[in-house]
Amino acid sequence: MRGVLTFHSVDASGSVLAIAPDQLRSLVKGIRSSGHEIVSLRHLLDHPGRNRVALSFDDGFRSVHDAALPVLREEGATATLFLTTGYVGADNGWPTQPAWAPRMPMMDWDQVETLHAAGWDVQAHTGSHPDLRELSDDAIRDEMEQADGAIEAKFGYRPDQFAYPYGSLDERVRELARDRYAWSVTTELAWLDGRGDDVLREAGVPRLDAFYVREGRWHKSFGGATFRAWVSARAALRRLRRS
Q1: I want to staple 235 with a disulfide (CB 3.0 to 4.6 A). Which of 80, 154, 166, 189 is the partner?
Q2: Which domain holds residue 39?
Q3: How far apart are CA 43 and CA 8, in angstroms?
Q4: CA separation (Å) from 66 to 78, 137, 214?
Q5: Rounded distance, CA 86 to CA 150, Å?
Q6: Total tally of structural domains belonging to the chain
């Protein structure tokens, strides 16, 4: 299987945004024991091949620095951080945050730099995490530039990967992202098998939400028929809820 896993917070709260540190470690071990290699998202996209998995973290929660970084460092793995740059050093209280979402501290820039120094790739997730469908073209470009400019100022490169806040997009938003980034990632629950580069660049890269596979039974069966059936069932339920 070729796929991308996405995470938010790494803590023991049980929140829908969280996976516990021991679950993260178990998942990493399960991925490898199933015959999959953990590679960077850039490597996964630039060098197509089966049995490769990339890890990504959205937003920039402090728990990623405090809990995920030590686990992945010990396991010899890195990840991609899609950073909401306008809330670095604050918490996730951006204006569009749902009422049900727990308030959690974000990393400061020193902590983001620690991840980057450890080999993590820092990419764009807008400045203030809005639903881009609700904004004008100029406002969307401004949100993207806030993230791109802040990351360039800190690390010396312009992001070429982008994560849509909430996974919310339409054709207008998709086109603006395509004009600016080599790759965009979505919240579609799917793996990359059977999708060529042209499809992934046009429609965006699907990701598997780690919350749905946080239990150990899925780690032991990672990538197998039972695992795939579970992911497909969760994806169908998500589509039904959004219809």
Answers
A1: 189
A2: 2-242
A3: 21
A4: 14, 37, 19
A5: 9
A6: 1
Pair type for strands 52-59 and 2-7:
parallel
> 81 in helix, strand or coil?
strand
Angle value at C-alpha 23, between 22 and 27, nearest 5 degrees: 120
pLDDT of residue 134: 98
Contacts of 90 by beta carbon, 8 Å cutoff, 6+ apart: 105, 106
Q: Return the exposure string of 123-160: e unless at least 16 CB atoms fall within 10 Å of the residue's CB, then b.
A: bbbbbbbbebeebeeeebeebbbbbbebbeebeeeebe
Residues forming beta bridges with residue 183, ordered by sequence position: 161
Mean pLDDT for each 10-residue chunk of the chain (243 residues)? 97 95 98 97 91 97 98 98 98 95 97 98 98 98 98 98 97 97 96 92 95 94 94 90 77
The Cα–Cα gap between 10 and 22 comes to 9
Tokens of 46: 């630039």
Query: Which of 26, 94, 87 is CA-nearest to residue 62?
Result: 87
- Domain CATH code at residue 155: 3.20.20.370
Q: Which two tokens stand for residue 207?
A: 């990701």
